[in-house]
Amino acid sequence: MSRLQVVSGKGGTGKTTVAAALALALATEGKRTLLVEVEGRQGIAQLFETEALPYEERKIAVAPGGGEVYALAIDAERALLDYLQMFYKLGGAGRALKKLGAIDFATTIAPGVRDVLLTGKACEAVRRRGRDGRPVYDHVVMDAPPTGRVTRFLNVNDEVAGLARIGPIHNQAQAVMKVLKSPETAVHLVTLLEEMPVQETADGIAELRAAGLPVGRVVVNMVRPRVLDEAAVRAASGERREEIARTLASAGIADSGALVGPLLEEAAGHARRVELERAQRAVLDGLGLPAYELPYLGDGADIAGLYRLARELRRQGVGAA
Ligand SMILES: Nc1ncnc2c1ncn2[C@@H]1O[C@H](COP(=O)(O)OP(=O)(O)O)[C@@H](O)[C@H]1O
Ligand SMILES: [Mg+2]
């Protein structure tokens, strides 16, 4: 299993939820995972019902079996200060940075540089080792920008190419790309069984591949149970009015005549959705990627729901050696 798992997808398909469930699922058997967010939305804090995350890794959940999930909201300005301190060994950082003009730079920071700082921080967490020489985190899961922006976000080398004269940033971009393009990384795309997100997923995969980034899995989220079998779906789309009215009457339901219309409409609606989902599933199958499938949580994606999704992911092989 890759050590850096990047989760993207069309907005609203469940990126943050899936990233959190994945981090929980990977924290099996005493493993430690870091869940990072990069867009300053505090979505992770909301999901885990904790206060806003500071720029600091802190434990937010314990997985069944004793694993731990840490979380970090990465902030570009703070990442820049970290970075300068690390690379230039700046003591008395504040004073020195002011002298360098870095504080001003931090507020007007170019988008490409911002991205390399954000991805750089995540890659640093992947590579970080403790005193015992073992990785501090077994896995890092990133709640990434949406599909339309993720390739550009991850392809930091191209983004900073125009700034190549700034040596250290260029070197940092290359170091980051080395991690992002390695088998240590997998980029997953979350989708629903609906036309728009599936189309975005197909486009996103093509873009990621063209950029040489490792595509992981498609995560089909919010899958609803089938309530009608094949025969019932066919019946609902056909003209079986009389027969259904007779069946209702023989079951002793009063005023069964008035019930037939709404019931058939309901069933036909379900049948149409099943058809649409089938078509979208065929498109996804055509992409030839392995998929995870997560159920629609009727009670919403609260903490209990997250643990349920994590269990579901483990059942589908996440965290298996
Ligand atoms: N499997 C699911 N079942 C039910 N609701 C879900 C599921 N996954 C996500 N949600 C809900 O969908 C909404 C969007 O999810 P979120 O993870 O914030 O998406 P994104 O990060 O892609 O914008 C949230 O209200 C979340 O609780
Ligand atoms: Mg989100």
Task: Describe it.
This protein is α/β, with parallel strands linked by helices and 321 residues long. 52% of the residues lie in helices and 15% in strands. It has helices spanning 15-26, 43-47, 76-88, 93-100, 102-107, 111-127, 147-154, 156-160, 167-180, 195-210, 230-237, 241-250, 256-286, 303-315; strands spanning 4-9, 32-37, 58-62, 68-73, 139-143, 185-191, 215-223, 291-295. α1 packs across α14 and α7 runs parallel beside α10. 37% of the residues are buried. The model has no long low-confidence stretch (mean pLDDT 86). Bound molecules: adenosine-5'-diphosphate and magnesium ion (MG). The site of adenosine-5'-diphosphate (ADP) has 16 residues, from α1 and β7. Adenosine-5'-diphosphate (ADP) binds at residues 9, 11-17, 43, 221-222, 294, 296-297, 300-301. It holds the Pfam family ArsA_ATPase.
Describe the protein's topology.
Blueprint lengths: L3 E6 L5 H12 L5 E6 L5 H5 L10 E5 L5 E6 L2 H13 L4 H8 L1 H6 L3 H17 L11 E5 L3 H8 L1 H5 L6 H14 L4 E7 L3 H16 L4 E9 L6 H8 L3 H10 L5 H31 L4 E5 L7 H13 L6
Parallel strand pairs: 1-5, 1-6, 2-4, 2-5, 6-7, 7-8
Antiparallel strand pairs: 3-4
This protein binds adenosine-5'-diphosphate and magnesium ion (MG).
The site of adenosine-5'-diphosphate has 16 residues, from helix 1 and strand 7.
Percent range for β-strand residues: 15-25%
> What is the SS-derived class?
alpha/beta
> Approximately how much helix is present in the residues?
40-55%
Helix-strand topology string: EHEHEEHHHHEHHHEHEHHHEH
Helix run count: 14
CATH topology description of the largest domain: Rossmann fold
Mean pLDDT: 86
CATH homolog superfamily of the largest domain? P-loop containing nucleotide triphosphate hydrolases
Uncertain segments: none
Number of strands: 8
Side by side, the strands of the main sheet go: 3-4-2-5-1-6-7-8
CATH class call of the largest domain: Alpha Beta
Shape: elongated
Question: What is the domain total for the residues?
Answer: 2
Radius of gyration: 24 Å
Largest beta-sheet details: 8 strands, mixed
Tell me what the CATH architecture of the largest domain is.
3-Layer(aba) Sandwich
List all distinct small molecules, including ions and cofactors, that are bound in this structure. Answer: adenosine-5'-diphosphate, magnesium ion
